[in-house]
User: Fold this.
Amino acid sequence: MGQYHEKLRNGDRTVISELYDQYAPALYGIILKIVRSEAVAQDVLQDTFVKIWQNGPAYDPGRGTLFTWMLNIARNN
Assistant:
Protein backbone atom coordinates (compact mmCIF):
# COMPACT_ATOMS: atom_id res chain seq x y z
CA MET A 1 0.00 0.00 0.00
CA GLY A 2 3.00 2.27 0.47
CA GLN A 3 3.35 2.64 -3.29
CA TYR A 4 0.05 4.51 -3.36
CA HIS A 5 1.30 7.03 -0.80
CA GLU A 6 4.41 7.75 -2.84
CA LYS A 7 2.42 8.09 -6.04
CA LEU A 8 -0.12 10.42 -4.41
CA ARG A 9 2.63 12.54 -2.91
CA ASN A 10 4.48 12.75 -6.23
CA GLY A 11 1.38 13.52 -8.32
CA ASP A 12 1.68 10.32 -10.36
CA ARG A 13 -1.42 10.31 -12.56
CA THR A 14 -1.56 6.50 -12.72
CA VAL A 15 -2.43 6.30 -9.04
CA ILE A 16 -6.05 7.37 -9.48
CA SER A 17 -6.91 4.52 -11.82
CA GLU A 18 -5.07 2.09 -9.53
CA LEU A 19 -6.93 3.37 -6.48
CA TYR A 20 -10.22 3.31 -8.37
CA ASP A 21 -9.71 -0.30 -9.42
CA GLN A 22 -8.73 -1.29 -5.88
CA TYR A 23 -11.18 0.70 -3.77
CA ALA A 24 -14.14 1.98 -5.81
CA PRO A 25 -16.40 -1.04 -5.26
CA ALA A 26 -16.02 -0.89 -1.47
CA LEU A 27 -16.39 2.89 -1.34
CA TYR A 28 -19.42 2.79 -3.62
CA GLY A 29 -21.11 0.21 -1.41
CA ILE A 30 -20.64 2.35 1.69
CA ILE A 31 -21.70 5.54 -0.08
CA LEU A 32 -24.81 3.81 -1.44
CA LYS A 33 -25.81 2.71 2.06
CA ILE A 34 -25.53 6.31 3.23
CA VAL A 35 -27.27 8.12 0.36
CA ARG A 36 -29.65 5.32 -0.75
CA SER A 37 -29.64 6.47 -4.35
CA GLU A 38 -27.50 4.92 -7.10
CA ALA A 39 -27.31 8.17 -9.06
CA VAL A 40 -26.24 10.17 -6.02
CA ALA A 41 -23.79 7.46 -4.96
CA GLN A 42 -22.15 7.54 -8.39
CA ASP A 43 -21.80 11.32 -8.21
CA VAL A 44 -20.37 11.19 -4.70
CA LEU A 45 -17.91 8.47 -5.75
CA GLN A 46 -16.73 10.55 -8.69
CA ASP A 47 -16.36 13.65 -6.50
CA THR A 48 -14.51 11.57 -3.93
CA PHE A 49 -11.89 10.48 -6.43
CA VAL A 50 -11.42 14.04 -7.65
CA LYS A 51 -10.78 15.12 -4.06
CA ILE A 52 -8.46 12.16 -3.47
CA TRP A 53 -6.39 13.35 -6.41
CA GLN A 54 -6.45 16.97 -5.31
CA ASN A 55 -5.56 16.14 -1.70
CA GLY A 56 -3.24 13.21 -2.34
CA PRO A 57 -0.10 14.91 -1.08
CA ALA A 58 -1.86 15.57 2.25
CA TYR A 59 -2.42 11.86 2.97
CA ASP A 60 -0.38 10.86 6.03
CA PRO A 61 -0.10 7.09 6.52
CA GLY A 62 0.92 7.72 10.13
CA ARG A 63 -2.59 8.98 10.88
CA GLY A 64 -4.53 6.02 9.45
CA THR A 65 -4.98 3.67 6.57
CA LEU A 66 -5.43 4.85 3.02
CA PHE A 67 -8.92 3.37 2.86
CA THR A 68 -9.98 5.19 6.03
CA TRP A 69 -8.65 8.46 4.62
CA MET A 70 -10.55 7.93 1.36
CA LEU A 71 -13.70 6.95 3.26
CA ASN A 72 -13.51 10.16 5.28
CA ILE A 73 -13.28 12.13 2.03
CA ALA A 74 -16.36 10.30 0.74
CA ARG A 75 -18.29 10.98 3.95
CA ASN A 76 -17.47 14.67 3.77
CA ASN A 77 -18.70 14.95 0.17
Notes: The chain has a mean pLDDT of 95. The radius of gyration is 12 Å.
